[in-house]
């Protein structure tokens, strides 16, 4: 049986759920919690210690800049309703529904030393650390990759060579829906002799 520390880690991993933006309450996230969550992100494994991640954190009134950026990026995207003023306004409104938005920016060292996928995966590991640390603090979260969130325009305005979406954080107004996974037997082959 896992000891107490292992059990806490396992429970946190199991409790993390992707939560809809509209299920958050407006409470802000304390700065020290955010710093701890971002620090957890930076402790992800990273080949050669390249640390190919950068994060831009939007909170409070700073979110209005992101809201404006998402509206413009959405308008420039290939989404079916990109030209719709209502859809663009919706992008703006949605940003204000979460108290914290964190960009997932990929900065591969130049010239590259390792294959791109290694740097991509390091960023993904950082993202997962952020999601788990947020869960440990009782925060709800989602890794979101909608058109505005991966847009080259959004990346450019953040000064990011590449963007792999955003994580938003906030406190859930209601118990998140549970998720499911395939049984281990479908995903794991054991070789023991
Ligand atoms: C790279 C990546 C991008 C994602 N983008 C979106 C997204 O744009 N919208 C969304 O609703 N969920 C997104 N998700 C979250 C998945 O939908 C979610 O993990 C899945 O539904 C399983 O739910 P769970 O995380 O609660 O187990 C993304 C997840 C990953 C890893």
From TrEMBL:
Keywords: Flavoprotein, FMN, NAD, NADP, Oxidoreductase. Pfam families: Nitroreductase. InterPro entries: NAD(P)H_nitroreductase, Nitroreductase, Nitroreductase-like, YdjA-like. The keyword NAD applies. Its EC number is 1.-.-.-. Its cofactor is FMN. Residues 13-171 form the Nitroreductase domain. It comes from the Bacteria. The keyword Ubl conjugation does not apply. Belongs to the nitroreductase family. This is Putative NAD(P)H nitroreductase. It comes from Deinococcus antarcticus.
């Amino acid at each position: 049986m896992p000891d107490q520390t292992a059990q806490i880690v396992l429970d946190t991993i199991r409790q993390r759920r992707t939560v809809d933006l509209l299920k958050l309450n407006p409470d802000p996230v304390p700065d020290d919690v955010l710093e701890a969550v971002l620090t957890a992100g930076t402790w992800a494994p990273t080949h050669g210690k390249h640390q190919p991640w950068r994060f831009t954190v939007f909170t409070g009134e700073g979110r209005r800049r992101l809201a404006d950026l998402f509206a413009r990026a959405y308008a420039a995207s290939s989404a079916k309703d990109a030209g719709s003023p209502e859809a663009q306004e919706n992008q703006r409104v949605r940003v204000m529904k979460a108290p914290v938005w964190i960009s997932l920016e990929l900065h591969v060292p130049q010239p590259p030393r390792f294959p791109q996928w290694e740097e991509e995966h390091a960023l993904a590991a950082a993202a997962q650390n952020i999601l788990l640390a947020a869960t440990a603090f009782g925060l709800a979260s989602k890794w979101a990759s909608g058109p505005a969130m991966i847009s080259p325009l959004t990346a450019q305005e953040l000064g990011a060579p590449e963007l792999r979406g955003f994580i938003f954080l906030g406190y859930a107004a209601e118990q998140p829906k549970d998720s499911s996974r395939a049984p281990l037997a479908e995903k794991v082959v054991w070789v023991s002799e």
